Amino acid sequence: MSEKVLDLLDEMTFKPDNFNLTVLFNACAEVANDRAVKIGRKLFDEMPHYYRNDIVLLNSAIHMFMKFGDVQNAEHIFDSMKKKDIITYNAMMKGYVGSVMSEKVLDLFEQMHLKLDNVTFIIIFNACAQLANDRAMKIGRKLLDDMPNDYQNDSVVLTSATHMLMKFGDVQSVEHIFDSMKKKDIITYNAMMKGYFENDMCEKVLDLFEHIHLNLNHITYSIVLNACTQLANDRAIKIGRKLVDNMPHNYRNDIVLLNSAIHMFMKFGDVQNAEHIFDSMKKKDIITYGAMMKGYVGNVMSEKALDLFEQMDLKFDNATFVIVFNACAQLANDRAMKIGRKLLDDMPNDYQNDSVVLTSATHMLMKFGEAESAERIVKLVRNKGIITYGALMNGYNMNDEPWKCFKILDEMKQKDIVLNEIIWNILIGACSKIGMIRRSQYIIDQIPLHIQNQKQIQNSLIHMWSKCGSIEKAQNVFKSVYDRDNVTFNAMINGFGLNGMGSEAIELYRQMPNNLHDEVSHICILNACSHSGLLHQARSIFNEISLKTEKIVTVMTDCLSRLFLFDEAEKLIDEYEKTNPPNFVMYMCLLSGARNNRNRNLSEKIYNRMKCLFPDQKQRLLSGAVLLSNIYSSVGEHQLAKNFRSNQIKELGTKVKIGLSWTDGSGEIVTFKAHDHSHPRSSEIHVEADLITSELIEDGYKCDSSWVTRELHEEETIESVLCGHSERLAIAFNFIQRPIPEFIQITKNLRVCGDCHEATKRIARIRQREIIVRDANRIHHFYKNGQCSCQDHF
Ligand SMILES: [Zn+2]
Ligand SMILES: [Zn+2]
Fold it and tell me: Which of 196, 257, 591, 613 is 20 to 30 A from 786 in CA distance terms?
């Protein structure tokens, strides 16, 4: 209609009078497009001088300029007015609220000496709601308390008071007003429900919703759908489903509501219903696709997210990038890598500043194992916050570069970023991976006490200290946990197991309340028995377990194989395979046991069966092949071992994982490969390693040639190959430190070889230093008396 008023203006041949002008200003305010702004300004500029005292006319001019967002002109008129009424003030204040300048509303309100009308109350309440700071709370509450009785029945005034108090978080006062209201319309209910929703009280949204006996409008639907999504419990699922089923026909084309409904069903895990709505929609926007794809990712169905992404023919928004990157990260397969990389390459420049988009790209690249590309992306993020740093550090842990997390920690400290428990947890994870007691202590000392005392952090600390080989520190944390849950117990039991303390593990497992026992507890305790050779106890615990899952059977197979009880282990596997598909790890346990038993025939039989059952698992088969070639070497068949190994590498087309050892240098973590010459003090390290070898030989040590797993180069001897293993270099590195560390600690990414195990026992005794070595499997404590805590069960 207002547009038509403006059209009429063009046809007007006479000069508009004050009445016409008021109508025209109001029309311009309502339309507020470019044309209206132009006309409105011109009309005002050309307004005859004698109208400049017409308060009604000027009030509508203020209203118009405020609607244009032209606060300055509105203020100019206001200041020029000699007489102002309540409508003048209301127009100004309403304009300020519209321009999000509510402090100015309160300034004006405090200057005003007029009787307030109901509009004033509504505007002030809205301004106070917008600010929700101390001043606004004081003014808003006082105004409400002093409100004359005749407004106590005005449902519009009360509804805006409701909105304000909800913004203040003062739910109790709102409920008081709500109960006192005689007449309530759907807007009142909506204000209440929205307030509950914003105050994180979604159950109350549903309580109130069930009491409504009015026609719902689309705002009601939107609030209740969102509340159901947030809760996603049985009650919410029931109400949410019913709401969608009974939705009136005219809302079935409301794209915003349908998008919320899709989001809700996805959150319920009800993918089918979400797909049903999606298929029924005639018009879909980018938010519709976003809700679907995000839902697929949330339900671990990222392939479907990519299918949809490839069908989509709309301009992407930043949410699209985030969701597709997350889907690709979740999958991390060939297709996902291709799509994810392409999307990142084609990303328009304006997203290069969006830290949320870049952070999800970082996470994706880390999942792809492309740490360097991820680092390049992180460099683009201008204001790096805790989430970006978190994604980066998580990525380093994922890609076996945990020591880089400490550099990031320094960077965060320099920027005075306050770390939260999520970041500390990631750092504790890095400490666990590295496994160095001194380094970990240095990091842990920086965690504020209120975070250190959170149970989730305490549970991580128990795990971390165990992985560092300090069972004492792990036990201290365990004792300090006030209400221990299954995770607390499992971490401690696992810690005992890793450190070869089987009986302590069993004792704690028996102390643990029965209702806390879960699959992880069973795995941890059987593992602990297995690592300490406690067969009898393992058997009786295994028999007590009612639900023998895949992982539980695997650990039991490992336990039996370590003790060379191959018939029993194979029987267990046969039994398992009657109802389940075969499991690769079970066969690896058998093969590894057969290797330690130097049982050539059995090993060949097992390896051939593995190749037959798991032809696609090439990387894992290769580790089997390495074990088998070890067996050939150990029975003196060096040529066969060599040929077999190189044939399998060729046939399987993969690479053998490189062995790495790291240790705690002064202030940094130092990493060694076999025969490594990269360290600046490398020549000193090799001299020391040779010195250690000659001391070993003097002590009566002979190289165990069965651990040589490759062909010798011309200048090499069996001794030089074995003594160049990465852990030997790491040990030598410790002995050239001044002072020599009180105890030496090394972590290795593969299993320690038998020759190094024997040598390390002797080094600990000869050099009188305790050496802690963690390998891929367990922790060895080499004592000064020449014994290892694993009692040679490795
Ligand atoms: Zn070795
Ligand atoms: Zn050992």
Answer: 591
